[in-house]
Design a protein that fits this description.
alpha/beta, Rossmann fold, globular, binds nicotinamide-adenine-dinucleotide
């Protein structure tokens, strides 16, 4: 499907149960927001900044201020690290503080290229540790917080939901409590299209809009949806200047090997079986990670406070087609593909309608899938030193538990 065809208004329009379309009124209200109004003076720039900082929207603040302090949580993971690279490149004067407790999915070696940058700081703490989070806010007085930190793998959430509640929900509220206490220009929550549940395969005319009701399937998506509800509640109740992005599946460099695309690339390189859930007909809407990072950058600077923005590339692909494409690109036989017992409650189709972010903020994806997947495969070929240590350790136990005992179908 071409990009233009994708913008056709065949959209799923349902009454929102949670998303208030508060729009311009709230944007204006945020200027008088008590959180901003009461911001302590140390927030006026990096301790000696500019009075305008507390009263202007972010894109105007950028015009009068030379720098911002930005806390990026979960920045040692896949999307967070790509976001840090994007921000340090585009705003070299900004200070980025990465807060990450380095779970199995966090990898400090990913951040090696920026570790010596004087405008970058890495802090190994958990977003669930209130004292540590408050301490960091006291030290850094952030202007913006972008929360990527999460337990992010659906399969793991099916095995152990508890940690998803703790990190994805409680961690989010602790971060927002810190934002309330110390003052903030913007809190941004990185969410997912999975909060909308799934769409039937035989209705290609349906897409998720920001008004589609929340209708989750897995413990992972339920925890993300709960966090979104808290984010919107903190905006309405406390006037916290928040925004939320709900993105489709990302792919690109530094993607942890348990996820579909890197898993298949690495297994194919080793001539190992390529385990595909069920018939592999599940459809996902794939977006190159850099396009997601640009979308978040736009939303935090120019997006309206209190709003949700869907982010997706109108690039729907069946899992089985992705896997055969990877085989072909690496010159591997399709006989490596093994259909295994399906994931419990497996969502059939995700499809995002990104009209709102396109019309309001001018965002469009820039990387076509055929280019993005070629870049990604080449990246994994060139960076064995990054993924080899990951797949040789604890990950092997996980892999055996997850796929070792799954029946072939
Ligand atoms: N990957 C996707 O396709 C996708 C799509 C849409 C939305 N998202 C969302 O984007 C965010 C990032 O996803 P990702 O794929 O980069 O995840 P990831 O699993 O690669 O990285 C998560 C990072 O969060 C860190 N982390 C986990 N718990 C933490 C805690 N308690 N305190 C501090 N740090 C903690 C981990 O160490 C890791 O570095 C998640 O919130 C996810 O829900 C992901």
């Amino acid at each position: 499907m071409s990009m233009q065809q994708g913008w056709e208004p065949h959209r799923l329009r349902m009454q929102s149960r949670i998303v208030g379309a508060q729009g311009a009124e709230q944007s204006a209200a945020s200027f008088l927001d008590p959180v901003l109004y009461n911001s302590p003076p140390h927030r006026l720039g990096r301790k000696h900044g500019n009075i305008f900082q507390s009263y202007l929207p972010l894109h105007l603040t950028r015009k009068v201020l030379l720098f911002m302090n930005i806390i990026v949580t979960g920045g040692a993971g896949f999307i967070g690290s790509n976001f840090i690279f994007h921000m340090l490149k585009k705003y070299p004067q900004d200070r980025i503080i990465c807060l990450d407790c380095l779970t199995y999915a966090g990898n400090l070696s990913t951040l090696a290229p920026v570790m010596d940058n004087p405008n970058f700081r890495f802090v190994k703490e958990s977003i669930t540790d209130r004292d540590a989070v408050y301490r960091l806010f006291e030290e850094e007085h952030p202007d913006i917080v972008v929360n990527f930190a999460a337990e992010s793998h659906v399969d793991r959430s099916i095995v152990n939901p508890d940690i998803f509640l703790e990190t994805n929900i409680h961690g989010t509220t602790i971060l927002m409590d810190a934002c309330r206490k110390y003052g903030i220009k913007r809190y941004h929550q990185v969410s997912t299209d999975e909060v909308y549940g799934d769409l039937p395969l035989d209705r290609p005319d349906l897409f998720f809009t920001e008004e589609t009701p929340i209708h989750t399937s897995s413990p992972y998506s339920s925890s993300k949806a709960s966090a979104d509800l808290f984010v919107l509640a903190y905006h309405r109740t406390y006037g916290l200047p928040v925004s939320i992005s709900r993105c489709s599946n990302n792919y690109g460099p530094y993607h942890f090997p348990e996820k579909l695309i890197p898993l298949m690339i690495i297994n194919a390189l080793h001539d190992e079986a390529l385990p595909v859930y069920g018939a592999g007909e599940n459809v996902r809407d794939w977006l190159y990670v850099e396009d997601h990072c640009r979308a978040i950058d736009l939303i935090i600077h120019e997006g309206r406070v209190g709003e949700v923005y869907n982010v997706g590339g109108h690039n729907e692909m069946r899992n089985i087609d992705i896997v055969t494409m990877i085989c072909d690109a690496l010159g591997k036989p399709h006989s490596l593909i093994k259909h295994v017992e399906d994931r419990k409650g497996h969502d059939m189709r995700y499809a995002i309608d990104p009209t709102k972010i396109h019309e309001e903020l001018g965002w469009l994806p820039e990387t076509r899938f055929k280019d993005g997947i070629a870049l990604t495969i080449q990246w994994y070929l060139d960076h064995e030193d990054w993924w080899q240590p990951i797949i040789s350790g604890e990950y092997q136990n996980y892999y055996q538990n997850m796929y070792g005992s799954r029946k072939e179908v």
